[in-house]
Design goal:
With 478 residues, the protein is of the alpha/beta class. 39% of the residues lie in helices and 12% in strands.
Amino acid sequence: MLSGMTDSRALIDLSISEAASALRQGATTSVALTEATLARIRETEPTLQAYAIVPVDLALAAAARADREIATGRDRGPLHGIPIGVKDNCYSKGILTEVGSKALAGFVPDFDATVVAKLYAAGAVLIGKTRCHEFSCGGSEPPTRTPWDLNRFPGGSSIGSGVALTARSAFGTIGTDTGGSIRIPASINNLVGMKATYGRVSAYGVVPLAWSLDHVGPLTRRVRDNALMLGAIAGHDPKDANSARLDAPDFSAGIEDGVRGMRIGIERDYFLYPGVTDEVRAATLSVIGELAAMGAEIIEISLPELATTREALMTIRMVESASYHRPRIREKGHLYSPGTRATLQMGEFLSGTQYLAALRARERFRSAMQDLFRRENLTALISPTIPVSAPLLTDVRKPRQDLDNGETPTDGFIHHVYPANLSGQPAISAPGGFTPAGLPIGYQLTGRPFDEATLYRIAHAYEQTQDWHERQPPQVHG
């Protein structure tokens, strides 16, 4: 398979691990990988619109440099020479960074976000800046589409990162996650998305949505690739006051060791509540069954504090978003989309007392999660990632007054993903099946703080039993 690879389609179908092996065996070059990826971008972008900008010349120059280094024996690691997309809220020196908003039109940073700097240090080729919702909370114009079904919601706010990856116009991507924005597009697009422990990956140079909830993390098509990417971008950063003082371990170590003896909890009342569709429920239970068959012990648990997570997180998010955007809105508010501006200003109507109450609720929830994991000796919690498959865009865009219960189909997305943002624990979404209509379904694992390696081990064990990760969406041509 690796001998003399020249077909561009074969190249872009490689996993990161496979591409890295091909580079080191001389079966391909970084320039070939980059040119194949750029060709795929030209083919798909008119329809999918996953990228805000693609710096072609910079990418090709980086690929040529990677080839020279590899040829002389310099090996920067598994991402060396691999084309990677980065969400457009991450500063990139000399590259346009508009975060989906006219309020930042023409902005070119003069330094790199730490995550971008770490990718460069690992030898990765920055293939492009992927589209995101306006300031990671508003709408997406022009609309990014998922190749699984152009008429369905592609996920948010790391929409471009999810779509580019599933379209094979990147080998891996970077997203950010304040309330599920890595894991939701991962679930919708049949990908692996990791929201690592809060502080594991530096957020320095990333335009915040809510500084105490924001996480930066990787999306990939396979579990092992995700572990390799996290290893490249994790680690202490003195520029980020919230960065954990921990070095990045080898997150793929022990990934083949299976799940025998692990205790995996399920809170049925919360995670399999009535809003979960029958298709998603069946897929999640199937994943649970497979893990049990491999030797994991499935534990029924109860955690009433889960019911408090939405209100606490929303309050924190709104206040912190309003605080960050207040100066710019006063100066350039007319350049924000009206819906985004209204969303970002909501926090100004909340009191300091309400914010402090939400912070206290977060601490109580963190304590309850720690007590639960310790009391039950849990390895992880399992749930659906989101309670439904990707809804139709026409349903998402309906005015609330036209909906039966006043909720859009995406309102329920946060139900399963918010808890890990509030507690700061690591959580991963991975492919868990498909609906009869061929839409992806993801499942989620939430783990102990700084124990991402065990989540990778569980997800990898399940990945070996299925072919979900190998399935591809309908071909999309520009």
